[in-house]
Design goal:
The chain has 358 residues and is mainly β. The chain has a single domain, classed as Beta-galactosidase, Chain A, domain 5. Helix content is 4%, strand content 38%. It has 3 helices and 27 strands. Strands 10-11-12-13-27-23-22-17-20 form a 9-stranded antiparallel β-sheet. A 6-stranded antiparallel β-sheet has the order 16-25-24-21-18-19. The chain has a 4-stranded antiparallel β-sheet with strand order 1-2-3-4, with no helix packed on it. β2 and β3 form a beta hairpin. The radius of gyration is 19 Å and the shape is globular.
Length: 358
């Protein structure tokens, strides 16, 4: 079942929507709904043991219908990020997808995975399994694609998201999650004072529509995050790429120690709370997005308005517009082959938890 936003829409008549909580002994807990597989809350203690919700979102599920394309906490698919003009060629055939942002296709378009009530296939004390079968006639992507998503929380404070998919035709796929993190707690100001480190020597420069131009080195640029850097130094720079995107909205080309294995991706730190987020992924890229178009019109769970830069998205994925760029890693999933992608978000405080990787 697809749900599309409309004024006055609500969930009162809809069936099959559920809410689930994963929790561990370290007082980390995650509340999830099968509507778009949204992360509704993610509670993490700080250095003093005070627990706060570190992801942006709403109190009422109805508000997710009218949040103007911010994609708070949801799964993104069938193809994360942008495809120029909504077009690509696969096996010699021109494919036209819907255009939902400035003449381009963004985050799976109007029939994206975030608009679906997913089937709950298994529930255990620390793991949730969801599945859904997407039809070509609905999404516009070639093939009927069966997708499974696994959410798991470990006692080592690892929130693990695993995606699996198979299609009966050759297709393209890139799945991610669009959670907005604020390690001070949602609604507690901006993420400009967060420190960020990215395991990348290169990034994808963009044009005025945020479509990638080419792979470029980060060396000597404000976008160089190989060492831990306070975000305000990046966001307040006058670098043309920051101006184009109204902030950070760029894909970093990750250094890969092992292909198709988990590799260290990023670290985000809020020094005031002592919270640290380490990210690991099997994907070739990570999109950093700093909530550039939050403008104070949306009021979150804290009953505070979300201003520009209120949260940071760390979207592990294939490269944007990769179906149209031969030099980018191929996002093609061959018929009957299995797509698998894993991303780990690990929360650390006061060195009480051992990092997954150094």
């Amino acid at each position: 079942m697809y749900i599309t936003a409309n004024k006055g829409a609500d969930f009162k008549e809809l069936k099959g929507i559920g809410f689930f909580t994963l929790a561990n002994k370290n007082n980390v807990s995650i509340k999830i709904t099968n509507y778009g597989l949204r992360i509704l809350t993610l509670n993490v203690p700080d250095k003093n043991g005070h627990i706060e919700d570190v992801v942006l979102g709403f109190d009422k599920l109805d508000d997710y219908l009218t949040e103007s394309g911010q994609y708070f906490g949801c799964i993104i698919g069938q193809y994360a990020n942008r495809i120029e003009n909504g077009r690509f060629i696969l096996n010699g055939k021109k494919i036209q997808l819907d255009k939902n942002e400035k003449g381009n296709h963004l985050h799976g378009g109007c029939y994206g995975y975030h608009n679906v009530i997913w089937e709950v296939s298994a529930v255990s004390h620390n793991k949730l399994n969801f599945q859904y079968t997407f039809k070509e006639s609905e999404t516009g992507y070639p093939g009927t694609t069966k997708v499974e998503v696994f959410y798991e929380l470990t006692e080592n404070n690892e929130f693990i998201i695993t995606y699996e998919a198979k299609s009966d035709k050759d297709t393209i796929i890139s799945l991610t999650n669009h959670a907005y993190f604020n390690l001070k707690g949602e609604g507690n100001g901006t993420i400009e004072d967060h420190f960020v480190k990215i395991n990348a020597n290169h990034y994808l420069s963009i044009n005025e529509s945020c479509i990638p131009n080419e792979i470029q080195e980060v060396d000597s640029l404000p976008l160089d995050l190989r060492d831990s850097t306070e975000l305000k130094d990046v966001l307040r720079s006058e670098f043309s790429q920051i101006t184009l995107a109204n902030g950070l909205d760029h894909c970093y080309v990750l250094k890969k120690e092992l292909n198709n294995h988990l590799n260290y991706t990023a670290t985000v730190e809020d020094k005031s709370s002592g919270r640290i987020l380490n990210v690991y992924t099997t994907e070739p890229g990570v999109q950093l997005y700093t909530g550039n178009f939050l403008d104070g019109t949306l009021v979150g769970k804290s009953q505070k308005a979300y201003q520009k830069y209120a949260g940071l998205c760390i979207e592990t994925q294939q490269f944007p517009n990769a179906p149209n760029e031969k030099e980018f890693p191929s996002p093609v999933l061959k018929a009957s082959k299995k797509y698998t992608s894993t991303t780990v978000y690990q929360f650390l405080v006061n060195n009480q938890i051992k990092p997954l990787q150094e």
